[in-house]
Amino acid sequence: MTSKGKRSYEERSSDPAAQEMLIRADELGISTAFSRAEEMAPCNIGGAGMCCKQCGMGPCRLTKDGQVGICGATIDTIQARNLIRAIAAGAAAHSDHGRDMAFTLKAVANGQTEGYIIRDVAKLRNIAEIYGIPIEKRSPQEIANDLADLYISQYGQQRGEVVCVKRAPEKRQKLWREQGVMPRGVDREVVESLHRTHIGDDQDATHILKHAVRTALADGWGGSLMATDISDILFGTPAPILGQANLGVLREDMVNIVVHGHEPTLSQMIVAASQDPEIIEYARAAGAKGVNLSGICCTANEILMRQGIPAAGNFLHQELSILTGAVEAMIVDVQCIMQALVDLAANFHTMIITTSPKVQLKGATHIEFDEHKALTIAKDILKTAIDNYKNRGKTHIPHDREELIPGFSHEYINYMLGGSYRASFRPLNDAIMSGRIRGVAAIVGCNNPRSQQDYLHNYVAQELLKKDVLIVETGCGAIAAAKLGLLLGEAGLEKVGAGLREVCETVGIPPVLHMGSCVDNTRILTVLTQMVEEGGLGDDIDQIPAVGLAPEWMSEKALSIGTYCVASGAYVIFGGSSPVSGMPDRVSDSDIVLRHIGSEGWEKFYGGKLEFVADPDEMIRRSLEHIDKKRAALGLPAYGTVSFGRSGDHRILELEALPVEQRRASIYGVAAD
Question: What's this model's pTM, rounded to 2 decimal places?
């Protein structure tokens, strides 16, 4: 620490571009999330989940052994209520995104939108066929209309099962039915979570947490999965593409427009409009060379993995991008948008433009987006931003930027492993079974200004790569890896374990695979399901040597994601503080909920568990221990690198470097002349 309570710039962020902008913020006397996190001490009672404000008799803060709330609620009941409400909010956010996508799909199918088309007809047909929607001799629009109706119905459905769960392994579906957590309808489970936690309702912590699982499953195997499906159908299923990341993607000589949020219906149309000759000429007439579009947060991932539009950064870069003084407009829709943006932008010329009917910021310019007039509105937004170019003052753009290859959808992973005629997860399963790949880790989630930005994401990733663990990433975690340069085929292979390096060189992939935005965690579930179906790694997800990590989590969406992954059979580790940690030194029963979501409850019922681990080395140790435990249970050889490390590609390069006679001797085993 440089002084009491204040961290150095390096302690605030591991990203040099972020450090540069934080220095600028202090020079200008402007606060950011980083400085506010230092000024705002967290409430240790609320942070431990022991404060209840569910009725007007409270808030009740439980700080003593055996203490209960005014209604008699115990610590475990209060913690379970707080946790399920957070999970319900997270599930609502991602699933509401899916609902909007379904309405857009229906409007596109009926010719009621402007600028949208169905781009991936093959995926549309494949998904429709899974649900028994007729596809033969039918137009894409007819099929899309029926799929949209089916998906829309899953939100208000009151009985039965959310249809998407049939895409989980059969054994897992059976388990959910036996445990009574099969989701019936997305909205029903979210509403019931709120009902159960109203004053005077459910007061058994384990019973509350059972419905928390059901609610999260309605998100992961419902709303979020549907959102990803429809995004791929409308905007194209991602495949590898070259992109760039970090604040250095901003341009001094162009109109810089940053899109931030989560809904691709807006961002994809902004991309299309920005490439329109009319808009390009409008920017040139304003004195700029053109329009330079970039993204923040999960909107960045959406346009990065489909169009190669650069990412200006992840969650904690939203303020830093404005601090450059080079951003004409930040266009936002929903989720992860800081209210501080408007006051910050007032120090510069940047316009904050809100677009969603659900989200407005006091003091921002509101231009409401409507899919029925999408292209027209997108052009109006861009022209508004271009008109602001003349007001730009002094700029300070960091030079830092890294190239990356995003876009590894589960469909592309299937293709790259087997090829177009024999697409298969067989090579991945075989690599795990042989020990070339020790296991798989999904590193996902947010940034949190209370920790060093990006450090936990990247430290954990780099250490696991050394131990031959293949990494898949989504959301802000993926952008963290991109800024470090880990998302290129040649990136860091000298520091990757020998077996994993063989696989990466042979297949031609980076050791860290970018799989999309945070809603696209469902792609990871699909990959795990396909690995199960391929055979050799058990008959359910909980048997695969895999682990999920959210090292810098901060949002309620992360809790929903973590819970539906646990219910799917995954071991999930969150970094930072636990929202249900309790205060064991003062309250003897404060870890009941913590134990239940771990080995004493959820692991027993679902084969997965959720743990909160602050120390990154302990995260790594537990991850590897879990992977090795799963390998042993499958009867796979113990992890070791003795036999690996010289892939065919790598060996050829070695041989080509030798003189002809030595090359001949090496290949054929004959003495050189």
Answer: 0.93
